[in-house]
Amino acid sequence: MVNRIVVGAHYGLKDWIAQRATAVVMAVYSVLMLLVLVLVQPGDFESWRGIFAHGFVKFATFLFVVSLFYHAWIGMRDLWMDYIKPTGLRLTLHVLTILALVGYTGWAASILWRL
Question: Which of 13, 47, 94, 98 has the fewest CB atoms within 10 Å, i.e. is most exposed?
């Protein structure tokens, strides 16, 4: 009989899938935006404003931003957990990373819906 000891936070598969899903969202958005930019060829602010005036483009861009920041959170959290051993410092870095990413998400939303 083999005694198996499970250790760790059990993030493995869930985070692996989340990383791949967010990467797919970002890749699809990048290809679609590249197509839009090739077709529209915005040269001035009004052209850019016209692209982002559509609700779908705003939503897709916000979905990209949220995916990017969730992708970044998983990567940074794993980096902090793997390489920062003092618990207090690791917790501080986790909190600072979360605050920065949530702040960036709010900032991106305010920019997108201000246009």
Answer: 13
- Burial string for 83-114 (b: 16+ CB within 10 Å, else e) reads eeeeeeebeebbeebeeebeeebeebeeeeee
**Residue 108 near residue 60 (C-beta atoms within 8 A):** no
Residue numbers of the domain that contains 106:
12-114
Query: What is the tens place of the pLDDT at every residue in 40-72?
Result: 999 899 999 999 999 999 999 999 999 999 999
- Counted domains in the chain: 1
Is residue 1 in a domain? no
Contact (Cβ atoms closer than 8 angstroms) between residue 96 and residue 58: no
> Strands (DSSP E) along 1-115, which ranges?
none
| The pLDDT of residue 12 is above 90 | no
Whole-structure pTM value: 0.83
Note the pLDDT of residue 78.
92
Our CA angle for 47, 49, 54, nearest 5°, is 110
